[in-house]
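Tutorial handout. Part one gives the primary structure; part two gives the three-dimensional structure as tokens.
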Amino acid sequence: MDAAREAWPGTEAVPTGARGPSGAFAPDVTGRPVWRLLVRGIGVYMPGWAEPSGAFSVAVPHGRSEFGAPPQDGFGGTPWDVPETAMPPGFGPPAFVAGESGFGLHLPERRKGLEPDREIYVRGQENPSFGIVIAGPASAVGSRVVDADGLVRFARKLTFEELFEPGDASSVPYAVRAARAVQNVVLLDRGSGIGLCAEADQRTGTARCPVFVRLGGPAERTVRAYALAPQAVSSHS
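Part two.
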């Protein structure tokens, strides 16, 4: 299959007035292209799992820049900095929130050389943007702390590798352009029961992760999504 020619999952009707489980309207989350990519990825890699109808809100406590931040030494030398009673239902390690970059993951290990499954989607004709769904262990990113910048870099690496044809020099420019044009990334780690969604702003070069996901096991087949509360969301779109 030529993954680069897969239609972007944004032509379907966007749900209006989508509510999170708390009852708060969340169209700023469920109406985003990265959310539609998440729903598409669940359908492709997790058939039978129910797509989330909305998102739990995660707010950074007043006066803080991080919520549930990982230990500063990066090796688990200090306890998690937020008690579980302060977190939304089901939210907690390995997820954390770090300022404007949004959600991140603090993993027990990092591993390089892993080859997760991936599906690439294209949106637009004249100036196409690319989205990619990555299905596999989050540790494949190669860092114990997976944030927006790291996930986008990894996604662009996979996109280039997927579209580059060894022995065909003409494929290089297209693969490079496609990698640079990756704007939406969905990572689904079914083994660990977690997922992360990232957006990259082509104009400013900034990346953020607006959605974290909890994946239920085969017995329940549920997906819980968590989004930054309105006061923690930047003007980036």
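Part three, for discussion. Residues 1-5, 8-25, 232-237 have pLDDT under 50 and may be disordered. Residues 90-228 form one domain.
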